[in-house]
Design goal:
about 250 residues; alpha/beta
């Protein structure tokens, strides 16, 4: 039996993929401007990419930013993500600080979902997930390959490992070097969804080559897709307006 994930008034894993929009401002002024713009946009999840923030390694300043974000969009789903440099993020962070930051953010309960990276220390991930779940928040465990698309079995394996570690939603994003790579990602998504993972998953093939993967989640099994408002946080993101339009067309005709 397939499971869904409920957060506020959003049901992830049912119907159209939910649209997440990244907030990527470099300072508090830019961040506030971006969040205010979100009020004009038809989206489901606001993702604060804290690694873009100039004071991102100062936990107290991160919390101040989250307080302002929550004040502007009090009823919306907020995803907190600090993407490390090796996973395509804007800056590096000491692993100890990475875990402390995510723990402290979860304790504030200013966010609804925390993104953790698959290739961090697994014992620390399990410990942090226990803490996050005690605060009644959800966890995405993610992996990003900006060089290639792994073999189909490896993609499925990484998604399953994320679930084994305790993820509510596993996520993988890969780089296509050919049309075949895109097909590999899509079929791996289908296999993971049909055979191994009962809950929602997130997958995507990046850049223009992989754009179909950001649109076809309802068919292949990816439950969240990322679209841009002002600035994209990863290669291949398209505007939320265009994304919503295509998702509606596909959903209506499926």
């Amino acid at each position: 039996m397939m499971k869904v994930v409920r957060v506020k008034d959003i049901i992830i894993g049912e119907g159209m993929p939910k649209i997440a929009v990244p907030i990527v401002g470099r300072n508090i002024t830019e961040i506030i401007e971006e969040v205010k713009e979100l009020k004009k946009i038809d989206f489901d999840i606001a993702e604060w990419r804290a690694d873009f923030f100039e004071n991102a390694t100062d936990i107290s300043k991160d919390i101040e930013v989250l307080e302002k974000i929550r004040e502007i969009i009090p009823k919306r789903v907020i995803l907190f993500t600090f993407r490390s440099f090796d996973e395509g993020g804007a800056r590096e962070i000491d692993e100890e600080l990475y875990f402390e930051l995510n723990k402290r953010v979860s304790e504030t309960k200013l966010v609804d979902i925390i993104d953790l990276e698959l290739f961090k220390d697994h014992n620390k991930i399990r410990e942090l997930i226990d803490s996050v779940h005690k605060n009644k928040l959800l966890v995405i465990i993610s992996n990003h390959d900006f060089e290639k698309t792994p073999e189909k079995d490896e993609i499925v394996k990484r998604l399953c490992k994320a679930v084994e570690l305790g993820a509510d939603i596993p996520k993988i994003a890969v780089m296509p070097n050919s049309a075949e790579d895109v097909i590999t990602l899509l079929d791996a998504t289908r296999i993971a969804k049909e055979k191994y993972i009962k809950g929602p998953i997130i997958t995507m093939s990046m850049t223009g080559k992989g754009i179909i993967s950001r649109l076809s989640g309802e068919l292949f099994g990816s439950a969240i897709t990322f679209g841009s408002a002002k600035k994209a946080s990863a290669p291949g993101q398209i505007s939320v307006k265009e994304l919503r339009k295509v998702l509606n067309i596909l959903h209506t005709n499926m």
